[in-house]
Amino acid sequence: MVGERYVSLKRQSNPDGRMPLMDHLRELRNRVVKMALAVLVGAGVAWAFYDRIWSFVQRPYCQAVGYCKVNVPGHSLILSGVMDGFYLHIKVSIIAGIVVTSPIWLYQFWAFIAPGLYSKEKRWTYLFMGTAVPLFALGCFFAFVAMSRGLKFFIGMSGGLTNLFTADTYIGYWIAIIIGFGLCFEVPLFLVILNLARVITHERFRKWRRLIIFLVFVFAGIASPSPDPLTMLLLGGVVALLVEVAEVIIFLNDRRYNRLHPDLNANLADDELSPVGTPEPVDVDSSLN
User: Is the pLDDT of residue 62 over 80?
Assistant: First the structure.
């Protein structure tokens, strides 16, 4: 509390957010403590609703095996250790706590870096977050739809043997697919950011379109939980459509940039001199004549 009040007083006396290094570290510590407390509180609440959360997480597995039934080999996840059930509760609760409290710890992170940004940079950050979050959520939705198909493929590769998946292995698979699909849907936003930073232009994007679309389907094939073409085409097709939308945005942004920053040498012939502005008068000391 003392550290928080000290930082608050510093902010009031210095609205530009300029502080010594130790004050920045003190504020960072306070922000991290608040983020950790928020996640712990969220995990505690998720612990109370563990059965419902686990039922939601386990749903793709139940769809893949036909139905879930306790203590039936091949139709239920297993625990291989004495304390695995307790560890599973902790892991699921922390993951749910991170998701539920994401507005809180994202705000704490933003409140720490915002004073060092200009107003234009803040607007771009708002636009980035307002686009990145829905795209990642859309990727998570497609991941949840395609997850059961991937599990069916892996179960079918068993060659008639009984599949006994541990709950910990399934959680790792579940998280990997969610993150893979979510990042795949961030590719169009990444291209727009590169254009805003003037790393790529629409002309260069147009030359690279086939390669970009090819790489999108390659990444979709890697992120897809199963090698069947339907899942890869579903993921790659949606991301390719978003890439086309990103191309339109890049085209419009290039037109705006060229209008605001015209090239004075664009219409000159090869043997024509570039225009030179009128030189400014220079004061010369009359005693030097």
Answer: yes
